[in-house]
């Protein structure tokens, strides 16, 4: 197996294990605070704040300046030690200042993201936020050290450290349940309860970053504080990542509007926390399929674009979309019919699972379009065009905002039932993504000529035809197992087992129909599956 193959297997395995332990972490968290309870929504808002703030900081600083320069610095006479010292000092100062300011602003941030929460729930979310916002510093240190390790071809720690974070969180949440029991609507939250729950979440991020420091010696760099930042590349932010930075800011603003809409949801209905968990399920096939399979195609795409072989780039676009499509359509069909038992993993009852499944189904509408967008957007990037993706992403963000406001209006007008607001926001997200990928594809075709849209749309159509009987077989299996009142919704573990059984039936029927249709992409897909299985040969 080649070095690239070994690295891919290591990263892929780490991603799968990280996702699985992340699922277990969320299951325990649901047991601690409830899926639809006010405390669960308050904690979800507070724990999301450091991620939102860090996303902007990381794009503006790490992506624009730090990460690209680490590899270049390795060619310096000192191996990049002096340069990396400057970068680390700059990054740490920016992260530290941002963390302090954000923590001081916790009450205003909570009020901004959850304006419709009642005062007692805002107070609880603020208390959680004081414990969670320090995560910004440790997220940043994790990225700084992790990218340095990757630049020196030390891949394992960066991939596997999040698993330790999940394990720490699981242990802490279990301790919370042991000490205080499971949170309910009537739970009176004390400062000790808040400290254990939110402190655990932050401790996991601290340990995650600390693990990477244990491997720092492998980089061969001796970093010391250096405040002489001249020459670090601050003036290059606009040129290197200006459009990308603005794109992330637009996405964060759209997410803010969605969060504000979800704060209208009363306790007992799927709200912010339930939407987060539905998104987690939705992103599982995307992260495993699109990122693991699509990334090697992106590398090939970049090589052909750099060499000026535009015809081969067009061929790469079609091949990558068809290869991703055959897997993503299967995942969409399987997860759609298993939505209720899959949602039961992150809920406390069968009725909650049915309600949460509606949110998941609305997200799933955009799974195939997102896979296409992955290829189309990166085609712009290989031609050093970040400006065009900004504009079609800005359109998507505008539609997300409009649909979220529309859902709020429909709720206030009595048109939309309160229990359907989260699903309506998710549906708006999917609608915006569908429009985005249509516009992006049109723009790419206009700028780069024929990109074979007809051929890969025809292939996606064949996959969809096979997906219909696959979904039918999966749904019949769900009904035979008792439906929403059967054993697949009696508990989180049985929900996972039931979802797996239903999904496997759907996948088997899907593969069978593709074989009947003599789909040429099936053989390529089977080769990829064999490579990913234990004992398979890496690329």
UniProtKB/TrEMBL annotation:
InterPro entries: Lipid_II_flippase_MurJ/MviN (IPR051050), MurJ (IPR004268)
Domain of life per record: Bacteria
UniProt entry keywords in alphabetical sequence: Cell membrane, Cell shape, Membrane, Peptidoglycan synthesis, Transmembrane, Transmembrane helix
Keyword Transmembrane belongs to the record: yes
Membrane topology of the entry: Multi-pass membrane protein
Subcellular locations according to the entry: Cell membrane
Annotated TM spans: 27-46, 52-75, 87-108, 128-146, 158-181, 193-216, 237-258, 278-299, 320-342, 354-376, 388-407, 419-444, 456-481, 493-517
Protein name: Murein biosynthesis integral membrane protein MurJ
Naturally occurring in which organism (per UniProt): Microbacterium salsuginis
Gene name of the encoded protein: murJ
